[in-house]
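dumping this here before i forget
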Amino acid sequence: MVKAGHSTTYEEVQKLHPLYFNIVKKRLWWFVISLLIIIPGIISFFMQGLNLGIDYKGGTMLDMTFNKAVTQTAISDTLKSVGLEGHVQLSNSDTTALIRTEALEEGKRSELLTALGTKVGEYDKASLKEDKVGPAMGQELTRNAIYALIIAMGMMIIYITFRFQFVFAISAILALLHDVLIVVGVFSLFQWEIDATFVAAILTIVGYSINDTVIIFDRIRENEPKMKRGDSYDDMVDKSIWQTMRRSINTVATVLIALLALFILGGESTRMFTLAMLIGVFCGAYSSICIASQILVEIKKRIKKPRRGGKDAVRA
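structure:
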């Protein structure tokens, strides 16, 4: 047990964790693992791009009300039967369907509506609504998503610089870019379709990841003034990571369990959003522990020379 008011030593922290190993000293391994995932994703992005959904490349949206409850599977199978693919979202006790598919010419539109009426069920023709989304709207959505991400990261740089130091902000933003690149790269590699909810997932991932990173940085800020002459900056950062390890693991585990349940039971309309969140939350926890703090150590080592009599003693 650690006495109240007693500053926990690095050795005590090590003993508290039966699976302890030095995370900071293995930082080159974490960088290599991340690069092995990010580089193929970047190559895939430039070679085959992203599989953009209707929200980005344009298409047709049908809002129709059936006379009885229907299923997403029945509508999806009907779309495939006429050579189409799309997203189906049900509401109003599964009687109202919002169908998004590629831009339809009049002949294909009539074929689809006939197939839906025959294979899925009768629908109210008078309440049928049809909207066409052009590529220009998709370009605007993409542009706004990029602006939102840039603004969010800019505000984070200001906040973290004010609360900690500028080097902390740079480390955190590089870790966030790491998470975004992995999620986008994986979606590009497997050509999973990206819709409007993907943007919401990315921004949510950024918010989650920065929260966990700030917790670790806060502990580093508390421990740094307590360093004694001859103490290692690497060991201090490693100690800070392990002091917050249980919280990080417990938080990510509960979030992943909830997301996994949503992925399995949530239906087709939320599947891509949940998949992006699953990948992003896992990467966010990994980057907070293994990337952000390690980047901070590397930056500190390069802007501050070791003090005499101290091994790797890097002080702010």
